[in-house]
TrEMBL record:
Alphabetical list of PROSITE patterns matching this protein: FE2OG_OXY
Enzyme Commission no: 1.14.11.2
Species this chain originates from: Phasianus colchicus
Keywords annotated in UniProt: Dioxygenase, Endoplasmic reticulum, Glycoprotein, Iron, Metal-binding, Oxidoreductase, Signal, TPR repeat, Vitamin C
Entry similarity comment: Belongs to the P4HA family.
SMART domains in alphabetical order: P4Hc (SM00702)
Name of the protein described by the UniProt record: procollagen-proline 4-dioxygenase
Length: 446
């Protein structure tokens, strides 16, 4: 199950690639892998170096301009520099006819900024786009829900569950808080998908942060503003059915907005009409949802894979040779990466899994290849337990009963990774080939 899914980006499909197309769609929603986040960080490092070069060039240019300015100003302030002196007259005329134009029309500034543009464009293809930003926003909201985190806490850099006095789930080495515009963006992503529950929480936080800095200009936040956040927040309340609060907020909005405080409409009807026109103008932009990255590894891919397969065969006592088992699947879950509850086995005879012609997935071996700082447990929903991520630990379970029926208790989910990089290897073992290793039984309880 785990590997398929809409829009899955396989980092490298070795062997059995075709199986990817067979697998039933899994309901996944994950921010891109942590590896991509590290790459993004590397790319930002490159941008920083380009910006530093630009600043160096521009400072040198401005220093040259200052020197010219100082030189000319000194001549103008010197009473003894009379225009009667033919040499001074010559240099004045030369300056005006030649030096000034070259100072004013210098293309140096353009060249410097062009170099900066080119440097950025070279990297642009590798930089995250709007889709990735939306995915990251959704990952934050998922963490908020799954671990019952308060939005205010998260915006302040804390991972503290709201309703308990338990210690924080994760304490980052360096506490990073979110800006008003960051919160505004998360709220907007929720808003755009009609998720007013989340948009209210995040826009509330954005509004309270914008209110604190209202009037003080912050270049990093010029995109979002208190007005915009109030606008979206009021409409979120409106859609959530809290009309009176929507009106209170839209009054505040009108107060700050371009109308000015002296033309606040007096009646609710006017405000509603006003709201209607404002919100008809707000666009909807959905985005593709990211998924965990995965790859299929044939045992010939590397001696390590072969050794791992032999060890799994020895431990389980099952026949893992193709086609009795699928190739080893390696999955990387990034920040907030998770899997919705699912069964590993096929629940319909029409499932593409049967195209391997070796029956259903009788058992699963799941190996945690990495540790994470927080989150990421595998939760067995009906069986009511979860297994935390412990590096090099392996989970084994039978998906099918001895009579071949699926075992409902194996419904499981990958909880969102709160902090860290979760790597998992999955081995799905099929029914065929195991007839003498796990004999059948007609008893449905077996
Ligand atoms: C509307 O929202 C405000 C602010 O969150 C809250 O105090 C109020 O109780 C809500 N009213 C209704 C009817 O839900
Ligand atoms: C699930 O397990 C927890 C703790 O192990 C227990 O408190 C809870 O009652 C259990 N829930 C069900 C539905 O069995």
């Amino acid at each position: 199950t785990a590997a398929s899914g809409r829009g899955m980006r396989a980092v490298g499909v070795l062997g059995l690639g075709a199986l990817l197309a067979w697998l039933p769609p899994a309901h996944t929603d994950t921010f891109s892998a942590l590896r991509s986040v590290r790459q993004a960080r590397g790319n930002e490092g490159r941008l920083l170096r380009r910006l530093r070069a630009y600043l160096r060039e521009e400072s040198a240019r401005l220093r040259r301009l200052s020197r010219f300015y100082e030189k000319v100003r000194a001549l103008h302030q010197d009473p003894s520099a009379s225009v009667d002196n033919p040499l001074l007259a010559f240099s004045l005329i030369k300056r005006l006819s030649s030096d000034w134009p070259s100072v004013v029309y210098s293309s140096e500034a353009t060249e410097n900024s062009r170099a900066l543009h080119v440097g950025f464009q070279e990297l642009q293809r590798e930089l995250p786009g709007a889709e990735d930003l939306d995915g990251a926003a959704r990952a934050l909201m998922r963490l908020q829900d799954v671990y019952a985190l308060s939005v205010k806490g998260m915006a302040n850099g804390l991972f503290q569950p709201t309703s308990t006095d338990r210690p924080p789930l994760y304490s980052p080495g360096r506490r990073v808080s979110l800006s008003a515009d960051d919160c505004f963006h998360v709220g907007k992503v929720a808003y755009d998908t009609g998720d007013f529950y989340h948009s209210i929480a995040w826009l509330e936080e954005a509004v309270s942060r914008f209110r604190l800095s209202y009037g003080s200009w912050n270049p990093e936040e010029e995109r979002g503003s208190l007005e915009d956040a109030l606008d979206y927040l009021a409409f979120s309340y409106f859609m959530a059915g809290n009309i009176s609060h929507a009106l209170t907020l839209s009054r505040e909005f009108l107060h700050y907005g371009t109308w000015g405080s002296d033309v606040v409409p007096g009646s609710w009807g006017e405000v509603l009409e006003c709201l209607y026109h404002l919100y008809m103008g707000l666009g909807q932009w959905g985005a593709e949802v990211g998924c965990p990255h995965s790859a299929w590894l044939k045992d010939t891919a590397d001696p390590v894979v072969r050794a791992l397969e032999l060890r799994m065969a020895a431990i389980t006592g099952l026949d893992l040779r193709p086609p009795y088992a699928e190739y080893l699947q390696v999955v990387n879950y990034g920040l907030g990466g998770h899997y919705e509850p699912h069964f590993d086995h096929a629940t319909s005879r029409k499932s593409p899994l049967y195209r391997m012609k070796s029956g259903n997935r009788i058992a699963t071996v799941m190996i945690y290849l990495s540790a994470v700082e927080a989150g990421g447990s595998t939760a067995f929903i009906y069986a009511n337990f979860s297994v935390p991520v412990v590096k090099n630990a392996a989970l084994f379970w039978w998906n099918l009963r001895r009579n071949g029926d699926g075992d409902g208790d194996t419904l499981h989910a990958g909880c969102p990774v709160l902090a860290g990089d979760k790597w998992v290897a999955n081995k799905w073992i099929h029914e065929y080939g195991q007839e003498f290793r796990r004999p059948c039984s007609r008893d449905p309880r077996d």
